[in-house]
Amino acid sequence: MNKTSTPRAVFVLCVCNDGYPASLEVRKLYVAIPDRSARTADLIRVIDESGEDYLYPTGYFVTCPLPARVRQALLRRRGGRPATRTGTTRTRPVRVLAGK
């Protein structure tokens, strides 16, 4: 990836929130921001419930590849426009309901 490209948002599913109950909700999709230095420390940068990006253990999340239409829908905020902040994609977490 070159310096002028915008990092692609990656969706991750929270599978554990030990120690972070106010910041993370289990079974909820979050946007992860690519961060090489965090990855080397076994951490992942995630936009959490506060709307800010923080580092969490990678074991708390599972990557969720999504079809393009679903990604686009999740990255849009009200009004149909993508939500962005200083070149990174930002969205509110989306609740994933467990099957009955």
Briefly summarize what is shown.
The chain has 100 residues and is α+β, with helices and mostly antiparallel strands. The protein contains two helices and eight strands.
Sequence-ordered SSE layout with sheet pairings:
Layout: E1 10-14, E2 28-33, H1 36-40, E3 43-47, E4 53-57, E5 61-63, H2 68-75, E6 84-85, E7 88-89, E8 94-95
Antiparallel strand pairs: 1-2, 1-5, 2-3, 2-8, 3-4, 6-7
Give structural notes.
The strands form two sheets. Strands 1, 2, 3, 4, 5 and 8 form a six-stranded antiparallel beta sheet that branches. The chain has a two-stranded antiparallel ribbon with strand order 6-7. The protein contains two helices and eight strands. Strand 3 and strand 4 form a beta hairpin. It is α+β, with helices and mostly antiparallel strands and 100 residues long. The longest helix has 8 residues, at 68-75. It starts with 9 loop residues before the first strand and ends in a 5-residue tail after the last strand. It has a single domain (10-89), classed as SH3 type barrels (Roll). It is globular and about 35 Å long. It has helices at 36-40, 68-75, and strands spanning 10-14, 28-33, 43-47, 53-57, 61-63, 84-85, 88-89, 94-95.
What do we call the CATH topology? SH3 type barrels
Mean of the pLDDT scores?
79
Q: Largest sheet, described in full?
A: 6 strands, antiparallel
CATH class: Mainly Beta
Strand content: 25-35%
Structural class by secondary-structure content: alpha+beta
